[in-house]
Amino acid sequence: MTFFKKSLSPARLMTFWVRNPVTGMAAGVLVILAVFTVAGPLFAPNNPFTPHPDMRLSPPSIHFPMGCDVLGRCLFSRILCGARASIGIGFAAVAISACLGTAIGLVAGFFKGFADELFMRITDMFLAFPEMVAAIALAGIMGPGNLNLIFAISCISWTKYARLSRSIALSAREALYVKSARLSGVSPVTIIFRHILPTVRPSMTVLATVGMAKGILSVSSLGFLGFGVQPPATEWGTLLMEGKDYLFTAPYLSIFPGLCIMAAVLSFNLLGNRFEHKT
Questions:
Q1: Are the C-beta atoms of 46 and 81 separated by less than 8 Å?
Q2: Which residues of 191-223 are buried (b: 16+ CB within 10 A; e: fewer)?
Q3: Taking CA 238 as the corner, what is the angle to CA 47 and CA 89, rounded to the nearest 5 degrees?
Q4: Coil, strand or helix at 74
Q5: Which has more pLDDT, 11 or 147?
Q6: Distance (Å) of CA 154 to CA 90, 118, 210
């Protein structure tokens, strides 16, 4: 607790911001997005599902900061509520992919032999398909829905975690402290969790942070194609799809969701690059 108090003190945060303004700005954007993901509806100035027929395609105003869509619904409120789906689904997919891929890579790298051959051939089989094409195919087969979206993205994303964790595990298993633990009779599960997993964790953190950017892009892309969350729920890619027919008459319907996607993806990429330089 004392460590977190010192790390999050105003003086340290200000020093970090001055020395790393770009990373600090990216972290600030992600904090705001995290708040909107958890409590977005609480900040919504209007009900995101209530239409106002007299305000159809109205431009941004005081009461509707980002304008209204074709049904007269507040775009700002819908973007706030859509953050939960865009970021939440992306986070769930990345978490599942990271855990599954890391576990497969650790087992393959530590035990080698048959386990390594089996898991790596399965990984190669998944890598043979373009990620986005495979995600569209899976989403099309299973149909729209949050769980199906998470499953589709997870199925195409775990391979890079497996590859990286396997390469690190292959190197770590030859370390003297790991060999000593094995000679001492320590169980393989204990060795993996106590000695090899801490070695893998920093690289997985970097990969997962950058993977969040790709996860949000995947969610938005599938939503734009109609495989995302279904009405009356909302999501940034779905909002982008709804606004594409009004690019000339009401361009803000596409501009604001697009800016949100860009801000989230860019912030996660910048933070991931910062973590990469630290590891």
A1: no
A2: bbeebbbebbeebbbbbbbbbbbbbbbbbbbbb
A3: 90
A4: strand
A5: 147
A6: 9, 20, 15
Q: Which residues pair with 68 in a beta bridge?
A: 74
Kindly report, residue by residue over 108-129, the tens digit of the pLDDT: 988 888 888 999 999 888 888 8
Structure pTM?
A: 0.84
8 Å CB contact between 59 and 250: yes
Could you give the C-alpha distances from 217 to 59, 168, 208, in angstroms and in order? 27, 28, 14
Distances (CA, A) of 72 to 42, 45, 230: 20, 14, 18
Round to whole Å and give the CA distance between 133 and 129. Answer: 7
- Give the helix ranges, DSSP H, for the chain: 2-7, 10-19, 21-43, 75-111, 113-127, 131-142, 146-172, 176-183, 188-191, 197-224, 236-243, 252-278
Whether the Cβ atoms of residue 253 and residue 238 lie closer than 8 Å to each other: no
For 24-54, b/e burial (b = at least 16 CB within 10 A) is bebbebbeebeebbeebeeebebebeeebee
Note the pLDDT of residue 78: 92
Phi/psi for 74 (5° steps) reads -65, 120
Q: Are 172 and 198 in contact (CB under 8 A)?
A: no
Query: How far, in Å, are 41, 77, 149, 270 from residue 226 at the CA level?
Result: 23, 21, 11, 29
| CB-CB neighbours of 115 under 10 Å | 14
Q: Would you say 98 and 204 are in contact if contact means Cβ atoms under 8 Å apart? A: yes
- Residue ranges and CATH numbers for the domains of the chain are 69-278 (1.10.3720.10)
